[in-house]
Amino acid sequence: MNKTIILIAYLATSFLVKGQELTKKPNIVFILADDLGINALNSNGNALVESPNIDKLFFEGMHFTNGYSNDPTCAPSRASILSGQYVPRHKVYRVADRYKTDKKTLEAMRFLPPEINRVKGSGAGLNLDKITIAEALKTSNYTTSAYGKWHLGKNDLQIQNQGFDEGYEITGHYNFKTSPQQEDLDNTQYSADVITDKTINFIKKASSENKPFFAYVPYYLVHKPLEPKAEYLAYFKNKLKNNSIVGKDEIKVLAMIKSLDESVGQLLKTLNDLGLEDDTIIVFTSDNGHYKTESNIFNQPYKGVKGQTLEGGIRVPYIFKWKNKIKAGSRSNEPIIHVDIYPTLLGLTNTSKPKDYVLDGEDISPVLLGITSETKRDALVWQYTNYARWNEKRQEFASSWVNVIQMDGFKMTEDVETNNFTLYNLNNDPYETKEVSNNYPAEIDKLKARLQQWKTETGYEKPQLNPDYIKQ
Predict the structure, then answer these.
(1) Closest by Cα among 180, 155, 156 to 167
(2) What element of type H or E holds 331?
(3) pTM to 2 decimals?
(4) CA 255, CA 210: separation in Å to the nearest integer?
(5) DSSP for 365-423, written as a single string
């Protein structure tokens, strides 16, 4: 397809989308799973998983085979989703500074990582000067909600101060906690059921008032603790009683995925019952890769788990559905990442980008709408600064400071502690079985230069010498 035809097609589609302003903007339901791995859905190839409702989304929309999180852990990836920015800009670098209370790890670190953004009285989290996706959508008269896992700060940094008209944080499964604390809520219920009920009530209210809505639905499933519903646990124990591969924890996770799918099904049914299916964009993804389990069946065949920048720690499912706009049953092999969600939703809803505010992602709406099959960007980058669990015997950290760049199918990792660089050619080795830096010196130089450009553009904080370092 030549550029003239692409331009005409894009303008035509934009006109159709803009034409909705005469009536109402499309609604958005953004479902974010917690720690759900790339192989944790039946539709993604895991026959052990029962996920019929999410699979229905999969086959009714477009899925991405090379979808990534911005970080292999929760808080940084969520900050990137909500702010639309890479980690060095929003500065939610890690979930916690565990190395500060681990003397062996602290003394083994040559460098100190940059400090997590903190606000007095509210702790670590997303600064209020960031324009969240909810705040951007409110400029197009969206009403907004967020019930579920926030993980981006308390008090002043809570949900209702970040562009959401209603909502509160809900963490845990049974005996869950809320922030701000909800005195009239029965926390012996399953948190996913509460999140779903609250979101459904929000959708019903917005629909009755004929308002376009943005429902951010960040479930705590399938994060630990492993607390499935008793009936689903019994079901999978019986179903897999003769399966020698699946571990006890994995049976619990399968039961929890079934609860997640049940909740998604209730949201989809609500949209259908209210006649909103045609007018609602649905996004489904996860915040990072799956945690380690007995056989790692939820990350296979990829190497690595949550907390690692190997593919299993950062690859996540991605599904976009907009009936009659996004082709049902379509797929894209283009690499996408969390920061793309913000500009994409602005593009699909014809909402203006916030003035004088940097968005690091790409609007992939032309791919979703079938206008083009390719993204424009040349590289994806990760910065992961989580020092953890120094092992004296092996003389290595469980995780440390790495910068990762993927470009033209090559994935290079810079180990800040050692100044070593590793390379995988994902074009022919997507499962990272063979390190090939010695075979591609020109690619290493190219990736180093592009990574340096990214560091300059994003305000990357350079490593600082650690005064507590003791040479091992």
Answers:
(1) 180
(2) strand 330-332
(3) 0.93
(4) 37
(5) HHHHTTS-S-----EEEEEEEEEEEEETTTTEEEEEEEEEEEETTEEEEEETTTTEEEE
For residues 378 and 65, give the distance between their C-alpha atoms in angstroms, rounded to a whole number: 18
What pLDDT, on the 0 to 100 scale, is given for residue 471?
79
Closest CA to 84 of 136, 141, 149: 136
233-264 per-position pLDDT tens digit: 999 999 999 998 999 999 999 999 999 999 99
pLDDT digits (tens, 9 = 90+) for 23-59: 589 999 999 999 999 999 999 999 999 999 999 999 9
State which fold the 380-465 domain adopts: Arylsulfatase, C-terminal domain (3.30.1120)
* DSSP SS3 for 339: helix
Amino acid letter at 334? E
pLDDT digits (tens, 9 = 90+) for 213-226: 999 999 999 999 99
390-393 contact pairs (CB < 8 A, 24+)? 390/102, 390/104, 390/105, 390/107, 390/108, 390/109, 392/104, 392/472
| The CATH number of the domain covering residues in 25-91+127-376 | 3.40.720.10
Which residue in this structure is represented by tokens 């922030």?
179
Nearest-angstrom CA–CA distance, 37 and 83? 23
- In sequence order, what DSSP letters do the residues of 50-66 get, joined into one string? --HHHHHHHHHSEEETT
Q: Which amino acid is at 395?
A: Q
